[in-house]
Design brief:
Layout: H1 6-9, H2 14-69, E1 82-84, E2 107-108, E3 121-126, E4 130-131, E5 145-156, E6 163-172
Parallel strand pairs: 1-3
Antiparallel strand pairs: 2-3, 3-5, 4-5, 5-6
Length: 173
């Protein structure tokens, strides 16, 4: 056998070490890219979930306002999501707690699509009447009371972990 040339005898496997270093760097870069992508995917899902919950709560709030725009024949007796604001222990004076996820004594919006985990719901509180302040006190005009209502609506997102609560004040003369 012929002797190896001097060039081949001086090589000590530097290419193998360099390949291993590059492989390690590529693994670290791909791992951080995967972690970043996973975080962005979670953020997009949470944004979609909270947006769905907000849209559901907004729809329930508009339904409560639509009910108040019509002729009110229902009594504010604590059933069907209709309550009175008053001081006392009567049932009609105690609206449900919005943080309680049960739907008892809430009015529900049954035809909301949107792929949410639970249908949006709301309740309406009849607040004490206030007198119209724009009428002069010495005039012969009768002072008509202004009816004020508070609507509390909540909507749920695609997952059952998100909930948005909206509240609005509605005025009727």
């Amino acid at each position: 056998m012929a002797a190896k040339p001097e060039f081949f005898r001086q090589q000590q496997g530097v290419v193998l070490v360099m390949c291993l270093i590059f492989m390690l760097l590529m693994t670290i870069i791909s791992g951080s890219a995967l972690q970043s992508t996973t975080l962005q995917e979670r953020m997009a899902g949470n944004a979609r979930d909270s947006n769905s919950a907000f849209q559901a709560a907004e729809a329930a709030l508009r339904e409560g306002e639509r009910i108040l725009q019509g002729a009110m024949t229902e009594a504010f007796d604590g059933s069907g999501g209709l309550y009175r604001e008053c001081s006392g222990e009567a049932v009609e004076c105690n609206p449900p707690d919005w943080s309680d996820r049960s739907v008892s004594n809430w009015a529900s919006l049954s035809d909301f699509g949107g792929g949410v985990s639970s249908q949006p719901n709301f309740y309406i509180e009849e607040l004490p009447n206030i007198e119209k302040l724009s009428v002069a006190l010495d005039s012969d005009q009768a002072v008509a009371p202004i009816k004020i209502y508070r609507i509390t609506a909540r909507g749920f997102g695609v997952s059952d972990k998100s909930m948005v609560v909206l509240r609005s004040i509605y005025r009727r003369e």
